[in-house]
Amino acid sequence: MSTDQIRLDQPTDGLQRLAARFSGHAYDLHRHETYGIGLTLYGVQQFHYRGSLRASRARQVLVLHPDEPHDGHAGEGGAFAYRMLYLDPAAISQALDGAGPPYVAEPVAHDEATARAIDEAFVDFPRQLEPIAIDALIGRFADLMVRRSDGERRRSRRNVALRAVTRARDFLVVESHRVVGSEELERVSGLDRFALARHFRSAFGTSPHRFQTGQRLMRAQAMIAEGVALSEAAAAAGFADQSHLTRHFAARFGVTPGRWAALSRRS
């Protein structure tokens, strides 16, 4: 009998936590619109990332960037477990006084300071973190990533139309249940659609469309974990039908909604 399992808390103020274990194949190729900062607990966690097969072993730390495709499976030993934090790049930039999100070139490293920070973030998991604890964690991980980065913060947010893209982002969150037109975002942001796309990616590490789709998928993900039928979750999250949800869900999370439901039940 498979011992594969996933536990995930609700995203709160730019941070979400996941704990999982797998005995073989874990995820198909997929991508997130967030940073993924993880810690392998035991076994060997292998994944394809930026054209290479990577491996993370016990107490090694992973840093995955927004919109970077990756998959996941067990390496030697046949099973692995890990913890992962998904961090909103906008929150990271805010913690860095408006600097662009840091770039960490090497995705796997022995980094005991980051490993300890991840351990602390999971002390009461899955109990909800208090707001000031979240603030402290985001600030801490922002500083840790800068330390691991290539030494140069990306260009200052002063070169990005931050207020405009933040208005667009907030609008996409509120209207995540429906299709939003380009003209609407132009009115909300005050930017033309092409400038908006450029500035949005500079600020948040992903496109407006992928960001809104991610909001829908997280809503569907939470509903499925609570036992809601896949067809109902698809409709409630703004997808045309269950097959529409399945295609996007697998691309975002690397597993189908049905497998996600089974893994969540085992938690």
Description:
The chain is α+β, with helices and mostly antiparallel strands. It is built from ten helices and ten strands. The strands form two sheets. It has a six-stranded antiparallel beta sheet. Strands 3-8-5-6 form a four-stranded antiparallel beta sheet.
Supply the key terms.
10 strands; 21% strand; alpha+beta; single chain; 43% helix; 267 residues; six-stranded antiparallel sheet
Q: Roughly how many Å apart are the termini?
A: 15 Å
Approximate helicity band: 40-55%
Mean pLDDT: 89
DSSP strand content: 15-25%
As residue ranges, the low-confidence spans are: 153-157
Q: What is the 3D form?
A: globular
Tell me the radius of gyration: 18 Å
Count the beta strands: 10
Supply the number of helical segments: 10
Biggest sheet features:
6 strands, antiparallel
Structural class: alpha+beta
Name the strands of the widest sheet in spatial order: 1-2-9-4-7-10
H and E string: EEEEEEEEEHEHHHHHHHHH
Gist?
With 267 residues, the protein is of the alpha+beta class.
SSE topology:
Blueprint: E1 5-8, E2 15-22, E3 25-30, E4 35-42, E5 45-49, E6 52-56, E7 61-64, E8 70-74, E9 80-87, H1 89-95, E10 108-109, H2 112-121, H3 131-148, H4 162-174, H5 182-189, H6 193-204, H7 208-225, H8 230-236, H9 242-253, H10 257-265
